[in-house]
Amino acid sequence: MAGVIEGAAVGAAALGLLGGGLAYASAWPTSQIFGRTLIAGSELSQVALTFDDGPNDAATPQLLEVLARYGVRATFFAMGSYARMRPDIVRAVVDAGHLLGNHTMTHPKLSMERAGRVRQELADCNAVLEDITGVAVHYFRPPFGARRPVVLRIAREIGLTPVMWNVTGYDWNPIGADRILDKLEAGITRCRLQRRGSNLLLHDGSHRGMGAARMDTVRAVGRLLQLHRGPEGRGTRFVGVDAWG
Ligand SMILES: [Zn+2]
Questions:
Q1: How far is Cα 124 from Cα 131, in angstroms, rounded to an integer?
Q2: How many CB atoms lie within 10 A of CB 16?
Q3: Distance CA 176, CA 237 (A)
Q4: pLDDT at 16
């Protein structure tokens, strides 16, 4: 009997490990276990600035100013519900030449949702963004980085390439511009050592509400661009994620 109990305990432990591994695979940004996602190319001089959870009237216009000052193109993964509230900002993003992507209507954790809801969130966000700008949307970033094979399949069915990241700015925490910049610099250095481009996750808004304080992100981006586009240069080329596929 003891042997049976022991076997059951080992089985449960193994299942626990398996469950942990799958949770890890569905949320870890560079994991490809649940299907291929776009992250970065092999050209290590290339850096993509990506901004999620906008448009945000408290940060997106200021961010556009900083990017324009350095002539840098970035990628904005906008929420459809916010885009409806501030279509003027969405138009300004596209008019400035930036790449606009889909970040769902309402920011649900798609790995927990039924297929019908996933499809609705993606299709509705596309419709809102395309209605505002007249430009087709081809890229999608899953909220919280959460994905399952069905999420990636539905995204591809409606013509969206799922995009993850390989450098995290941790700017959803109030850590200040200096620490955000440190995280970005360390990440870019790590990617270059791995002979890869850098895809930087940042936020111009918050899924918790319009008007989120994101000026630390704007300041960190300003300093990053000063470092990489200033006299020293560092050979960095800022690109939209469409440079990679
Ligand atoms: Zn988000």
A1: 10
A2: 10
A3: 25
A4: 46
Q: Is 207 a catalytic residue?
A: no
Block residue for tokens 């925490």:
173
101 in Cβ contact with 139 (< 8 Å): yes
Mean pLDDT for the chain? 89
- Residue 203 annotated as catalytic: yes
**For the chain, which ranges sit under pLDDT 70?**
1-27, 33-34, 230-233
User: Cα(8)–Cα(2) distance, rounded to whole angstroms?
Assistant: 10
Distances (CA, A) of 236 to 8, 60, 92, 169, 218: 55, 23, 25, 18, 19
Q: For 5-44, write each residue's pLDDT tens digit.
A: 333 333 444 444 445 555 555 667 877 766 779 999 999 9
63-79 in b/e burial notation, b at 16+ Cβ within 10 A? bbebbeeeebbbbbbbb
3-state secondary structure of 22: helix
Rg (CA), the chain: 19
The pLDDT score that the predictor gives to residue 32 is 77
Amino acid 26: pLDDT: 61
Cα of 28 vs centre of ligand 1, distance in Å, is 15
| Dist CA 137 CA 125 (whole Å) | 9
Q: How far is the CA of 208 from the centre of ligand 1 (A)?
A: 10
Both tokens assigned to 183 = 């995280």
Host H or E run for residue 8: helix 2-27
Q: Which residue of the set 103, 107, 203, 207 is catalytic?
A: 203
Question: What string of H, E and C letters represents the secondary structure of 33-84?
Answer: CCCCCECCCCCCCEEEEEEEEECCCCCHHHHHHHHHHHCCCCEEEECHHHHH
